[in-house]
Each structure stands twice: as C-alpha cells, then as structure tokens.
Amino acid sequence: MVDAWRPQPMATYAEMEGLEISHDSSDDGLPPLPPGSSYRLNRYTRPLIDYVRNEWQTSAKYTSLSVSPDRSDSPRWVQMFMSMVTAPRFRRYAIIYLVLLVSCLVGWMFVLSPRLEEHEALVHSLDPSNKDEVGGWFGMNALPRFDDITQLRDLDSSLLPAVKAQKGGRPSSRRLIFIGDVHGCKDELELLLDKVSFDHERDHLVFTGDMINKGPDSPGVVDLARKYAASCVRGNHEDRVLLLRHDMEASNTLSPDSDGNISPELFFGLNTRDRALARQLSNEQVQWLDACPVILNVGQIPELGQVVVVHGGLVPGVELDKQDPSSVMNMLTIDLDTHVPSSRRNGTKWTKLFNKHQSLLYSSLKGSVPDPKSHVMTVIYGHDSKSSLSLKTYTKGLDSGCVKGGKLTAMVVEDGGKQSITQVRCRDHRKEKG
C-alpha cells in the first residue's frame, strides 16, 4: 500500500542495497507505519533523470545542448570547440560578424576604393610634371578670338552684397540672385521671383544661360530680364538661335515665306523650332542676348572667393580670357590626361577636376597668406540638368530641369556671403509641345 502511494524511483538517489530506515510520521506528516515496517531503498546505477520519459530526451532543441557520447573520448579542446559551435549564442554572433564582414567588403569595393582611385587620378592629372607627357594641356596656348561674341565681362562692383552681414538680423543691403536654366518658362520664373521676395531696388538677377528655347515664352523671359536690367551669360541655346538668326538675316530668309529657300548650310537651319524662335525675337531682344558674355566675372564674395558665372563649365588652371568659348558653353566632362573638355557624358565630370584643383590650391595657400579663400574661384553654372541641383565647394550647378517638369532654382547670396537655395516646381512643357 505504501509502495503504491509513493513510487520508489522518486524515493532516493544513492547507491544503497538492503538498507532499511524507519519512518517518523512527524517528519513529513505521513501516516504512521505499523511497527516493524520500513521503506526499502533500491539501488539505481544511473541518474534518475535517465528514467524520465518525456520530451526532454527526444526534443532536438535539448539534445543539441549535451555532448554526444561519441565525443566522450575526444580531446578536451575538441569538446570545448564543439560545445561553442553548437551554442545558439555563437551562431547569432557568427551571423552578425558575417554580415559586418560582407558590408565592409561591399563598402570597400563599391564606395571607398573607387573614391580613392578617383582621388589619385585627379591628383595625377593636375601634376604639372605630366603636362609634357601628353604634349601640353588644353588651353595653355592663346585661342582664336571670336568677334561676334563677348568672351568676358566684369560685373559692376556696386551690385555686390556687403562684405559683412548687417547687425541685429537686419535684411541685407544688397543681394545677388543667380537663376538656373529657364528655357522660356516665364510663369515659373515669375513664381520664383515672388518666392524669393525679389526687390528690384536692392536685388540683382544673374541668369546662368539657356534663358530661351524649348519652353512656351522665350521672348517673355528676355523682356522680364531686360526690364530688371539683369545680367546673363551666353548659353548653348542662345548661341545656336543667335547664330541662326544672323545667318537668316544675311541670307534674307528671316520671313516665314522664305522657308523654301533655307539652305542646309545654315547653322541648324533645318530645325523648325529654332528657326521659328529666331524669327520671333525682336531686334532689341536679339541685341540684348548678343551682349551676354560667355563668362561673367562677378568678383570677390566672402566664403566664395572669386565668383564666376558660365553656362557649361571651365577648364581648371586656364585664364578666363583663354577659355574656349564653345567649350565653356557646352562642356559636361573632361579628359584627365589632356584636360580637353567634351559635351558628352562619357568621361569625368569637369566639376570633379575643378573642385580638386581649387582644393589643392587652397591647401597650398592656407597658412601662408592672410585670406586664402580670396585666391580660389567658385563657378556658378547651368546646362547639366541630368545632375540637377549640384552644390559642391567650388562649383554650384543650378539647372534642375524646369522645362522637363523639374524645378526652377535660384541661389541667393546676401551680405557676408550667406547663401540659400529657393526652388519652384515646373510643368512639363515637352508634353505641351507634343
């Protein structure tokens, strides 16, 4: 009766045989045994846990925690290694470290290594000792002059913002507002001027070229710029339309009735849209656009150094009056060996070489001259709508693709050289043109 009430396997954990003990009911509250009765302790040769029949012994999540009997004779270091490898925490750490290792490799291969290689290539291309190896860099010699365009012009210094900002948070005495490629989008231009709170009495507008063509109201944009006595540079679209206009005037084909007499030799003469715009512009508008220089030297501005405005770009290290006008209006990339610019995109962006050139110049002057920033140059440009707004240390790209449904951008420079960017959204005028 007692054996049924208290199972023997749970009664003891000892190697005893034939040992009898008496039971005192006062110890655990059990009923007293008859005189002469006792519990008999059986002998168990294995741990009691081996006699348990439940999920503990058969579940995979528990069996992996114990050392297999097959490794009982293995060296101790093998057993330790296997116990670490099979531990869940080890697997978690292994996954984390593997992810970190893969991330480092990917970062090195696709981010850090390409940048280091690019840096080395840029520095090598600017090393004067390499100039003779390629027969001289582009622009080192005097270039032919073009009598029908203005190469370089200086901005009136009275239009520049003050060197120091106004005290007490007062508005700037003067502001320069640089505007990216408008392409005939007059409505968006007016919205942008409203957004920057344009004040003709204290603000001066500077257009980075391509004011006309592609958009709905090129003559209206020119009239607005003339109204506010804005400054501008000659872009590649002004250049092609003006050359076509002058060719049409010289060949007496300015009248719409003379389309049948258009010669294929005319500059872009077979482009219907360019020809229509060339006829649409008035003589006064053509004269104003003709006066836009290829390069506008704005002057010294705090935090920016010498500021220059072009439409396409500049070849670093070449004097402004020796820059090739066609390249200045059209360049996108540059050859690192010869410094020859190109209007195609299959090369290094000219801005990378220019920024590296100015950065090295600034580093060489820092600590040796009182104001090294005044000896470097910052270029404000348009033309590269694919890169959209691109603000680097020494180059500021403002063409954000307005005519294609992008944005029209203004860079506002205030007293003390403070800079800010303002943009408005544009309609996609390509769809309207069909």
UniProtKB/TrEMBL annotation:
GO molecular function: endopolyphosphatase activity; phosphatase activity
Sequence intervals crossing the membrane: 90-111
PANTHER family linked: METALLOPHOSPHOESTERASE, ZINC-DEPENDENT ENDOPOLYPHOSPHATASE
InterPro entries attached to this UniProt entry: Ap4A_hydrolase, Calcineurin-like_PHP, Metallo-depent_PP-like
GO BP, sorted A to Z: polyphosphate catabolic process
Any one Pfam family match given in the protein's UniProt record, by short name: Metallophos
Keywords noted in UniProt: Membrane, Transmembrane, Transmembrane helix
Gene3D superfamilies, per database record: 3.60.21.10
Protein name, as recorded: Calcineurin-like phosphoesterase domain-containing protein
Domain Calcineurin-like phosphoesterase residues, every copy: 175-352
Protein species of origin: Aspergillus turcosus
Xref: SUPFAM superfamilies: Metallo-dependent phosphatases (SSF56300)
DNA-binding among keywords: no
Domain of life according to the entry: Eukaryota
A GO CC term assigned to this protein in UniProt: cytoplasm
